[in-house]
Amino acid sequence: MPNPLTNPRCRTMASSLITLAAIIVLIFEGVPLLFKPNLLKQVQQSGELVVISRNSPTTYYEGAQGPTGFEYELVKKFADSLGVKLKIITPDNLQDIFDMLDNGKAHFAAAGLTITESRKQRVRFTASYQEITEKLIYHNQDKKPESIEDLALGNLEVVAGSSHVESLKKLKKKYPGLSWKEHNDMESEELLQLVENKIIDYTIADSNELKMNQRFMLELRAAFDISEPRQLAWAFPITKDSSLYDKAMSFFWRSLNNGDITQLIERHYGHVSKFDYVGNRIYVRHIATRLSKYQDLYQQAAKKYKLDWKLLAAMGYQESHWNPRAVSPTGVRGIMMLTRKTAGQLGIKNRLDPKSSIFGGAKYLAQISARFPEDIKEPDRTWFAMAAYNVGYYHVLDARKIAIQQGKDPNKWIDLKTTLPLLSQKKWYKKTKFGYARGWEPVRYVEGIRRYYDLLNYQLAKNVQQEEPAHDAFSILPPVL
Question: Which of 331, 413, 339, 342 is nearest to 380 (CA)?
Fold first, then answer.
């Protein structure tokens, strides 16, 4: 009988059996280690991308039509490009984001995170998609602080774990008397509200957060920047497997080059760049004193023609400041400022009758919207329709043709708002079918309605909140279009 320890054939058979047994064990324990897919493949096989974000109007929140926010829409595009569902999780505070990434609770964070040197020690940042500055915020009725030394006269409060804390620590080396309080249980918008209500004197906010909230918190002002311009990016855990990170980087370069990110920035911030303190104050007063007379009519008309009643009401305010007897120098009149010709086509006999005007305006807007090609998607389709309501449908078609001539996208409002003003320039309108138009007016018109819509949403939510039992002073976030 051959000795299994010395016989080569026996040794070979034994080795094969051991190898086979090892493979069987690995199969029963899970996928064989040699064939374990990378992280990108794991995400695609599971069908789910798990992302950390923050509840904020600049990042992610539940809007009237479902989840929205700049960060949400951007990461949703990425998930769609992978062919998977998106799952958003929100931590209790900012500092938890990095702990959750360390513990493998999510694939990455899309939470409006600023790139800083200390954070780069913990996470791997993607390409930047937005630039911001950190601003010191104070109340309009208080004396404007001119320097860091002036902050000693009041209390400064910021979000714990934020890049603002890092900036303050750097400043403290130069200004030893600088002090502040950090909050683990508050977001930046909540601290802005405390400044607005004069509960605290100062806070720090990113420029995009201020821009978004200043329309609603009318007394907020920026004193000065406390940092150089900073970059926002997604944050990935630092691991050897970079497959998902690499895919995200490819997504960013593609989105930057094809204009997707620019389009998202326009959608969320394009209409909020102009802050009109006096105009917004008057508007808030008119919401309280005038809108109630016509709210039911706007709701009924919007329901009939499948529109958003608040958008229709904002449009009415842009037209007439909700004055049913308004008359323009050009002869348009009524709360929705219909022309005599349009009123005749709609069968309206009295343009000064609020009901007739509101229902007529809603019907006309719906008719215009239906005329545009199906490949113009929302919300651009609505902006196109409102621009046509103001300047005329055929002038908008001319502006779309100019967009094509310039190599722009004729189906995107971000491009149309640059070509509409060209209709007032002879070298452009002489090439069009319908000629000259005051093309800058519909751009201002649409942007104004978007601002009024956002502020109306915020005020109505605020009113509801005041009527209900207090349970969370900051549970209502302003919507963003």
Answer: 413
- Which of 290, 269, 244 lies closest to 73, judged by CA? 269
- Catalytic site positions: 319
Instruction: CATH number for 277-450: choose from 1.10.530.10, 2.40.10.10, 3.30.70.260, 3.40.50.720.
Output: 1.10.530.10
- Please state, in angstroms and as integers, the Cα–Cα distance from residue 166 to each residue in 68, 135, 424, following that order: 29, 14, 49
C-alpha 37/C-alpha 185 separation (Å) is: 39
DSSP secondary structure string, 272-313?
SS---HHHHHHHHHHHHHTHHHHHHHHHHHHHHTT--HHHHH
Report the alpha-carbon angle 436-399-410, nearest 5: 175
* Residue 420 DSSP label: G
Q: Which residue has the tokens 């005051």?
A: 438
Other C-beta atoms lying within 10 Å of the C-beta of residue 222: 17
Closest CA to 79 of 105, 40, 112, 113: 40
CA dist 222 and 215 (Å) reads: 13
Write down the domain spans for the chain: 1-36, 39-130+232-269, 134-228, 277-450
pTM for this predicted structure: 0.64
User: Residue 284: exposed, middle, or buried by beta-carbon count in 10 A (0-12, 13-18, 19+)?
Assistant: middle
> Within 10 Å of residue 449's Cβ, how many Cβ atoms?
27
Same fold, 39-130+232-269 and 134-228: yes
DSSP letter assigned to residue 236:
E
Q: For residues 112 and 54, is the Cβ–Cβ distance under 8 A? A: yes
363 conformational bin, left if phi > 0, alpha if psi -120 to 50, beta if neither: alpha
How far is the C-alpha of 370 from the C-alpha of 384, rounded, in Å?
A: 11
Q: Which CATH number fits domain 134-228: 3.40.50.1010, 3.30.2010.30, 3.40.190.10, 3.40.50.300?
A: 3.40.190.10
Q: Could you tell me which CATH number the domain at 39-130+232-269 has?
A: 3.40.190.10
Q: Per residue of the chain (481 residues), what is the pLDDT tens digit? A: 455 445 555 555 545 554 554 544 444 444 444 567 899 999 999 999 999 998 887 888 776 567 888 999 999 999 999 999 999 998 988 889 999 999 999 999 999 999 999 999 999 999 998 899 999 999 999 999 999 999 988 999 999 989 999 999 999 999 999 999 999 888 888 899 899 989 999 999 999 889 888 877 888 999 999 999 999 999 999 999 999 999 999 999 998 888 888 888 877 777 666 656 667 788 888 998 999 999 999 999 999 999 999 999 999 999 999 999 988 766 789 999 998 889 999 999 999 999 999 999 999 999 999 999 999 999 999 999 999 999 999 999 999 999 999 999 999 999 999 999 999 888 888 888 888 888 888 998 999 899 899 889 888 887 766 655 443 333 333 443 4
